[in-house]
Design brief:
single chain, alpha/beta, 13 helices, about 30% helix
Length: about 400
């Protein structure tokens, strides 16, 4: 019997069952290829009470996030997104040298470095020691810890009460959601602001983004559920913005429920109405998703088998977690896709979990000239196509698989 990580209701409604899969960011070295690779159920369920969509915890968070292979700074568009946010935040909330900005899951300092350059005091909280070291090397102070209520109380004692708490793509990664939100409430100054960005469940369902489901993403969030979770800890959502990042995200802005410093924004009612129209507060909003996922799998496999029968080759771009969900659900291996490339040197010369595709520098594509380049992080396809524009010189074509197969002529 599995229960909701927020409200403890028994979970009986399935969104999609993606079978047993390895951890999406557990890349393999050559000497581990002969060893047993653990796999865990990847079954997304919907709470019929609070509507939190979730997968059960497969293993301890330290196993996933203690040493991490994802570095935010290797996506230039994501760094630019962060820079724009810091400029907006400084203006909107009058952040100065007397303020304090804390980012939870601050990664390699990709965002906080912009506040540092502007003279705004910051602190990053990052559980992966290897990633935190990179942030410290660019003068972003970073506390190596998992964020929760206990961590927040310690940070308060150390003088880090926050005018702004930033949580970009961390809210979905938290196994103990209640402990995390309790920490946000503790750390926030009386009139401070919390900014949480996360992929929007509504877009996941609309655009069949099942490949964003993996064990590191414990929760899949709507505004509806987020408001309920924050309210349980004395926090009020006062505005929300729709973003293009990660296939469609929300930026939810919250404050203490008794703060009068932040007026309600127009975005709040608009997104509430959009989710209501999509029936996210009833079972109807989640029905039929699994069948649409199966259709994506069947279409991709038909394409890959056709290409192989024609004697043509396919390489993949982006050793992204979403690509690992896609390949492992579709049972794709090296017989259908030759290899994958990635700009991140921390992933190069390793192998994808499950599918065992070798990971190379992007130069490998120019050396081997595959007929098709399958873009796995489809949310970055414009950036990747610009970077690899010379693929077209030998007649190569780019392909995406989600929400349906698309050969980009």
């Amino acid at each position: 019997m599995i229960h909701c990580r927020f409200c403890k209701t028994e979970l009986r409604l399935t969104l999609v069952d993606l079978g047993s899969q390895p951890l999406a960011n557990s890349y393999l070295s050559a000497d581990h290829l002969s060893q047993y690779e653990p796999k865990y159920p990847l079954h997304a369920r919907v709470c019929e009470n609070c509507r939190l969509t979730q997968v059960e915890a497969a293993t301890a968070p330290s196993e996933i996030f203690g040493h991490y292979a994802y570095f935010s700074s290797y996506s230039s568009s994501w760094v630019e997104h962060a820079r724009h946010f810091t400029e907006m935040a400084r203006r909107r909330w009058n952040l100065t040298t007397a303020s304090k900005v804390v980012e939870v899951a601050s990664n390699d300092g990709y965002l906080l470095k912009h506040f540092v350059a502007a003279g705004v005091p910051v602190l990053g909280v990052e559980p992966a020691a290897n990633v935190a070291e990179v942030a410290r090397a660019i003068n972003v102070p970073t506390d190596v810890s998992f964020f929760n209520e206990e961590t927040a109380k310690r940070l308060i004692r150390e003088g880090h009460a926050a005018d702004l708490i930033v949580g970009n793509n961390v809210f979905a990664h938290v196994p103990n959601l209640n402990d995390f939100v309790a920490g946000l409430s503790v750390l926030l100054k009386p009139d401070g602001v919390i900014s949480l960005e996360f992929p929007h469940l509504l877009q996941l369902i609309r655009h069949v983004q099942f490949d964003t489901i993996y064990h590191e993403h414990f929760s899949y969030l709507s505004l509806l559920t987020t408001e309920r979770v924050l309210a349980a800890f004395g926090l009020r959502v006062f505005d929300v913005e729709e973003l293009q990042t990660h296939g469609g995200s929300l930026r939810v802005l919250a404050c203490h429920e008794n703060s009068r410093a932040h007026a309600t924004g127009a975005g709040l009612e608009r997104i509430r109405a959009e989710e209501s129209q999509a029936d996210l507060n009833s079972d109807r909003g989640y029905e039929g998703f699994a069948a649409r996922v199966s259709a994506v799998r069947d279409e991709l496999l038909a394409f890959l088998h056709k290409v192989r029968a024609e004697g043509k080759t396919v390489a993949a771009y982006g050793a992204a977690a979403k690509g690992n969900t896609l390949f492992n659900y579709c049972n794709v291996g090296t017989e259908l896709v030759s290899f994958v490339v990635d700009r991140n040197p921390h992933k190069q010369n390793l192998y994808l979990p499950g599918s065992r595709l070798p990971i190379y520098d992007p130069a490998k594509i120019r050396e081997t000239k595959p007929d098709y380049v399958l873009i796995l992080p489809w949310n970055l396809k414009a950036e990747i196509i610009r970077e690899m524009a010379d693929v077209r010189a030998w007649g190569g074509k780019f392909v995406t698989a989600v929400p349906q197969l698309n050969i980009l002529e």
